[in-house]
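Dear colleague,

As promised, here are the two records you asked about, laid out in our usual form so they can be pasted straight into your sheet.

NAME FIELD: protein one
SEQUENCE, THEN STRUCTURE:
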Amino acid sequence: MIGERIKMQRKRNGLSLTELSKRAGVAKSYLSSIERGLQQNPSIQFLEKVSDVLKVTVEEFLKIDQSEQNVDVDHLEHEWSELVREAVASGVSKDQFKEFLEFNKWKIKRE
């Protein structure tokens, strides 16, 4: 879904894949694989670069429509809020949390 949203915004801005990749400073092949759904979990840094060029927020790419996800969003948001509160209370910094996420992505790719 993220890839589809990026592609839609790119086309709305009248940019080719090559133009967007150059302006955002990202690899054209990677951008293409995101748009085609071959890669589905781009980094926040990637999304920030692309969203800056397309003049949209990162959140625009991450929005989850109720029709896309058949989950209890209110319950899920509460669970995430509790996890964040617990992490902050235990002294986990934003940087440490980001490092954990990056490590976890790396670990999953290796498996």
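NAME FIELD: protein two
SEQUENCE, THEN STRUCTURE:
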Amino acid sequence: MTDDLEELKRRLVVGRKSDGRSVYDEKAKSELVALCLQPGASVSRVARECGVNANQVGRWLREHRQGRREHAAVAGVAPTPAAFVAVPVVAAPGAGGDGEDSEPAGMRLQARLPNGVAVELRGVDLRHLGEVIGALGRLRCSVSTKT
């Protein structure tokens, strides 16, 4: 364990409740969440090295993300998406405008979203595609729909 993680572990737990649950320092929790948000970081490894259950750290991460969304909504700023997926645009066979097997005016999009939802859109006007994708990204999805 690095010295930084050892020091963070030392500062993290500031007390115990009467039922034995730990009381955590808010600043140290924020630092732990920031470590977990680093590219390539393993939440379970960071949690284990700091002596915290990985499920608890996962809850802190969800609360952090929710807090960012609420803060952005209050500030009137569009929230930053948790994950942005690049969608390559390629011409489908017969879509070259020669009248052969071409779709009606508009685009066709097929995607599997990170929450497990499969989407197929046909005939979507390019001007509206961004709005459609934004609306889909804001939808809440239960864990039961994840694959």
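A couple of things worth noting about protein two: The two ends are 35 Å apart (CA to CA). The chain has two domains: 3-75, 81-147.

Best,
R.
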